[in-house]
User: Which sequence fits this backbone?
């Protein structure tokens, strides 16, 4: 049992690509399914992050950008490791930001190096998610910023995949955050951190505010038990858990981020903007996702 638990923790802390013995073909990068095809880039005044945004900001018209800050799988320093997911979010009118850098494409194709046994370590700090929010707020007011007046700083979400989901939970009590999206993740049921740089317990779930969405990969997801336990502990705020039966790797690099991105966009549009069509996917006995054969959904405090 101890050997199985150790293996599970290693998988939770590492991006799916790092578990393979040989490289896979590079996934096709897609610009998102929304009205505003998106791009990603490095901002000179935010060098340790990757910024995802609609490619043509002028096409937004009067629409302001919501903010979606995202912790990478494995808490890795590859800010493009979930790029199709983030590009899809951005294409629907959001400024999405992930910690890390844009790796050299040639480096991505090299076979990953196996990590030695022992204590796992986050390559990016949890504080990088707060830094991303700080930057977005500052850019909205900076005189020569391309984002000046284009960001609605009252509409901020925090999210993350696997280890990055734990980073999101570590920052969820930031009063600027209106909703959290925890993906293929959850606080360890056994207690303790097991990952250097990650200090979060079940008490973080009790402090969640606004609203919360968990997106898990079904029973074959190694984070399933942790995430479902988190969800059961949530009280007093609107919350949902969606299970997509794809395991721990999720649908991040499927074209336009796959089903998970579709679910997250609907949640953001509802919880941050009050969009009625998006709300209908979660609200009511006959909600849109309630009838969707690609997933299962549980809800609480949602009317």
Assistant:
């Amino acid at each position: 049992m101890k050997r199985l638990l150790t293996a599970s923790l290693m998988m939770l802390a590492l991006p799916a690509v790092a578990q393979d013995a040989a490289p896979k073909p590079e996934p096709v990068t897609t610009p998102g399914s929304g009205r505003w095809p998106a791009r990603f880039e490095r901002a000179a005044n935010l060098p340790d992050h990757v910024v995802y945004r609609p490619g043509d900001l002028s096409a937004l018209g009067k629409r302001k950008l919501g903010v979606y800050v995202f912790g990478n799988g494995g808490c890795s320093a590859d800010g493009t490791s979930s790029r199709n997911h983030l590009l899809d979010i951005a294409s629907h009118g959001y400024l999405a930001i992930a910690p890390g850098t844009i790796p050299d494409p040639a480096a991505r194709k090299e076979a990953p190096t196996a990590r030695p046994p022992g204590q796992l370590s986050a390559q990016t700090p949890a504080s990088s998610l707060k830094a991303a929010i700080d930057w977005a707020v500052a850019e909205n007011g900076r005189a020569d910023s391309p984002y000046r007046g284009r960001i609605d700083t009252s509409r901020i979400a925090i999210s993350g995949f696997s280890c990055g989901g734990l980073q999101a939970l570590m920052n969820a009590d930031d009063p600027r955050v209106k909703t959290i999206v925890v993906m293929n993740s959850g606080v360890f049921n056994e207690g303790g951190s097991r990952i250097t740089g990650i200090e979060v317990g079940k008490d973080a779930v009790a402090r969640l505010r606004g609203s919360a969405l968990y997106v898990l990969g079904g029973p074959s997801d190694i984070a399933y038990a942790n995430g479902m336990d988190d969800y059961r502990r949530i009280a007093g705020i609107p919350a949902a858990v969606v299970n997509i039966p794809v395991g721990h790797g999720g649908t991040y690099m499927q074209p336009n981020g796959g089903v998970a991105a579709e679910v997250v966009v609907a949640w953001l549009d509802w919880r941050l903007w009050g969009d009625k069509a998006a709300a209908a996917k979660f609200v009511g006995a006959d909600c849109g996702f309630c009838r969707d054969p690609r997933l299962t959904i549980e809800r609480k405090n949602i009317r």
About this structure: The two ends are 41 Å apart (CA to CA). Residues 187 and 222 are 12 Å apart (CA to CA). The longest strand covers residues 151-161. The longest helix spans residues 258-273.
